[in-house]
DNA sequence: GGAACCTCTGAATGATGGTTCACTTCTTTC
DNA sequence: GAAAGAAGTGAACCATCATTCAGAGGTTCC
């Protein structure tokens, strides 16, 4: 009966874990999953490589946590807009817009979430989150179809197409003029997305 | 001067190299890049691991060759249709259709080409081929815009969106009913693609 | 047949990077 | 202050493969 974690100690440990996740996220956004070795991440957090294993059972577990946190934020933001009030077409437009702006603001993280090569565990997580994006888009499209704002269509397929289209445009370098100007890019992307769903021009 | 490769010997070596590439492609389509170790590929081709290095300077070089061959076939087929005769909207429809059918017929290879985690050299190759798909689509879209079949738009962005949309729909498992029926899936996908470009319904 | 040169083999080598662990350092409790 | 136990360290360890290489087995040409 000589040692019990005091509340302050527990908080300190939780903060250390949190700090590790945040630093790992930065490293991943900076250099991608492949380059984010345990040593690199530990260095960034100012701890020894071995100490990572105080907080996570494996590198995979840490990577999954990093992915989940970041991806969940995007799902939440997108969900707030897509499930909000108003005309489905308008919500779709605003959803694409907000998603695109966030991705452009933090391109490294967007790339890591959407496309960067990653270990299988992260790949599985990515798949799960893609399904969630798709479900959010599909719901709006179904609503729009029901309200006669969009033509009849398989909402799941359109939603998948939207997910892919948005990701591709945001993540890969374009040589077009719009690539220089974020506003223009976002405007073109929302226009494509609305056409994709069949919204009246 | 006691040894010069006889034509038959040269042919035999070329055939061996060819056979290796074909077998490697099958392995990759089957199990993905990550699992396609030099040993696995050599086993599939019925040769020793070391013999791979008779034909390729590194595993990367072999992987790049495998990717290029397969991707080039798709670019050729798509290019034939998109650059053919006729109405731009119709060519776009047929292009998406043929691309989709081929991907669905050889799903493993399509996944390997479009999305499967791969080493950096293959990733770079993939990027280059994506640009080529994009260029093909962009040309048709520009034509369609010029011919007033599509509304004004940044063709590069629409083309990127198309590439992403098509890839996403074909490569990731869908839970919708259309996923069961290839014809239905292709029909929905071409419809989305045409809407994406803004073709009149 | 045999000298010269090649292809093929597969076990040994080497690089990379996650994981472990003996040890040090810090916290708690008495 | 000292015992008990936890957190933190970082060098050693280990698994995984790509790559090499010394030897075996062919092929060419005189």
UniProtKB/TrEMBL annotation, chains A, B:
Keywords (A to Z) from UniProt: DNA-binding
DNA-binding region: 37-56
Domain HTH tetR-type: 14-74
One annotated GO molecular function: DNA-binding transcription factor activity
Matching Pfam families: TetR_C_24 (PF17932), TetR_N (PF00440)
Gene3D superfamilies per record: Homeodomain-like, Tetracycline Repressor, domain 2
Entry protein name: TetR/AcrR family transcriptional regulator
Organism, as annotated: Streptomyces globisporus
């Amino acid at each position: 009966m000589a040692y019990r974690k005091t509340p302050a100690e527990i908080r300190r440990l939780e903060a250390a874990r949190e700090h590790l996740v945040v630093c790992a996220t930065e490293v991943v956004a900076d250099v991608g999953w492949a380059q984010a070795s345990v040593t690199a991440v530990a260095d960034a957090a100012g701890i020894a490589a071995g100490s990572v294993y105080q907080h996570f059972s494996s590198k995979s577990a840490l990577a999954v946590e990093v992915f989940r946190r970041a991806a969940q934020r995007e799902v939440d933001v997108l969900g707030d807009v897509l499930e909000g009030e108003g005309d489905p077409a308008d919500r779709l437009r605003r959803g694409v817009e907000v998603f695109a702006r966030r991705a452009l603001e933090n391109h490294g993280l967007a790339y890591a979430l959407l496309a960067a090569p990653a270990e299988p565990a992260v790949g599985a997580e990515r798949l799960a989150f893609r399904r969630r994006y798709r479900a959010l888009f599909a719901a709006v499209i179904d609503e729009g179809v029901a309200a006669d704002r969009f033509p009849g269509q398989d909402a799941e397929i359109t939603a998948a197409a939207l997910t892919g289209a948005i990701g591709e445009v945001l993540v890969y370098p374009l040589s077009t003029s719009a690539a220089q100007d974020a506003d223009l890019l976002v405007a073109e992307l929302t226009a494509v997305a609305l056409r994709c769903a069949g919204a009246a021009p």
